[in-house]
Amino acid sequence: xxxxxxxxxxxxxxxxxxxxxxxxxxxxxxxxxxxxxxxxxxxxxxxxxxxxxxxxxxxxxxxxxxxxxxxxxxxxxxxxxxxxxxxxxxxxxxxxxxxxxxxxxxxxxxxxxxxxxxxxxxxxxxxxxxxxxxxxxxxxxxxxxxxxxxxxxxxxxxxxxxxxxxxxxxxxxxxx
Length: 176
Prior knowledge:
Strand content: under 5%
Number of helices: 7
Number of strands: 2
Shape: globular
Helix content: over 70%
Order of helices and strands: HHHHEEHHH
Strand order of the largest sheet: 1-2
Number of domains: 2
Largest sheet: 2 strands, antiparallel
């Protein structure tokens, strides 16, 4: 599940959400002036959060969380509104009428899956610390003249290794 905490997933999902929301509600572009503004702002916030957290995880993580929270709120509102239309058998409920027209049930399933992914994306950055940073380059820290992040990560990695080896010794002792 740590895959959803990666910054590249955040900006990729944000770009997908931007394109998906625009295509699904393309017919609203001319009818209302501000119909898609909240969707666009949420997608841009998620893209910005992914970019900033990709540069500096400690400072950018909160921006990524804000972007995910905004997207979750929009998708959850859409899912619950469409579910209400489905339950009440609303005559004008049609799912999506934009560039890609979908009936209500497949549209509801797609929005539900996107909402579940976004909830996972909101949850995992809050639970992830420095685990995925092993693959990142230390050049940003060298450019700023600060290696504190790399040192802290090395200390945490050493503590985890020590904990694992202690638990392994306890298990071996208990088996004997």
